[in-house]
Design goal:
CATH topology: Metallo-beta-lactamase, Chain A
Mean pLDDT: 88
Low-confidence stretches: 227-255
CATH architecture: 4-Layer Sandwich
Radius of gyration: 17 Å
Strand content: 15-25%
Number of strands: 14
Bound molecules: zinc ion
Structural class: alpha/beta
Largest sheet: 6 strands, mixed
Number of domains: 1
CATH class: Alpha Beta
CATH superfamily: Ribonuclease Z/Hydroxyacylglutathione hydrolase-like
Strand order of the largest sheet: 1-2-3-4-5-6
Helix content: 10-25%
Shape: globular
Length: about 260
């Protein structure tokens, strides 16, 4: 898709490897116990674990931070995540109690090993690494961040804020484990204000070629969107997805 950007699918979740002048950057680390798959993906690129210099975490869900402790230990890579999601990664304070399907998956697969963070991301927008912009996109989790790579017209690593449909349209990311689905939608709309050609997701296939237009189309379809601007396709977007999963009661009922 884009030179030096690679997607690794681990079951139902994607992680990404980005080859830069300063080593390999991982965006998320997949499900727990997949370190060997990451090593193999690196080998396929003619790299090895020691070439990984940084790990950018979109958020603290177990399917995104599964191998971060192992990667950090073996590579010495610096690990970045937003301050608001730190506690679910470092194991300090309460671990985030998984919800919905994730609860069962955690039972099957196991919890991720906690790790230290080397750099905490704060603010609405920042530059954790040269070429990468971190955009705070809360809603899925409080500290969710999406990353924009300045390459080939822009590559968005949307994490779980957005996803794509089978026919390559942008849609909401998974919401059954979201802390605030409405805020997640607003964050998706915020991403539509940037410029990028390509978008990759934690779940769903990459979208390439004016990917941002698909974000804009989805943002226009959201309730309360489009004040002022009514495009020709005002009523044609994917129906606002409030979904069957807005009523996951008993959220934090810990186990
Ligand atoms: Zn998630
Ligand atoms: Zn996820």
């Amino acid at each position: 898709m884009v030179d030096g950007v690679f997607e690794l699918s681990l079951g139902f979740v994607n992680m990404h490897l980005v080859v830069t002048d300063d080593g390999v950057v991982l965006v998320d680390t997949g499900l727990p116990r997949n370190a060997k798959r990451i090593d193999r993906a690196l080998r396929d690129l003619g790299k090895q674990i020691g070439d990984v210099t940084a790990v950018l975490l979109t958020h603290n869900h177990f399917d995104h931070i599964g191998n971060v402790a192992d990667v950090r230990r073996r590579s010495g890579a610096r690990v970045f995540a937003h301050a608001a999601d730190a506690m679910g990664i470092t194991g300090v304070n309460e671990p985030v109690e998984p919800k919905g399907l994730a609860k069962f998956a955690v039972r099957l697969i196991g919890r991720p090993e906690p790790t230290k963070l080397d750099k905490v991301i704060t603010g609405a927008e920042s530059t954790p690494l040269p070429g990468f912009t971190a955009v705070h996109t809360p809603g899925h989790t409080r500290g969710h961040v999406s990353f924009l790579l300045d390459r080939d017209g822009g590559v968005l690593f949307a994490g779980d804020t957005a996803s794509s449909t089978r026919d390559g349209k942008v849609t909401s990311g998974p919401t059954q484990a979201s802390v605030d689905p409405a805020e997640q939608s607003r964050s998706l709309a915020k991403l539509a204000g940037y410029e990028f050609e390509h978008a990759v997701f934690g779940h769903g296939r990459a979208v390439s070629g004016r990917a941002v237009e698909s974000f804009r189309a989805y943002a226009r379809s959201l309730p309360g969107a489009g004040a002022g601007e009514s495009g020709p396709d005002a009523g044609s977007g994917p129906s606002a997805e409030s979904g069957p999963d807005t009523s996951t009661g008993g959220d934090q009922a810990g186990r």
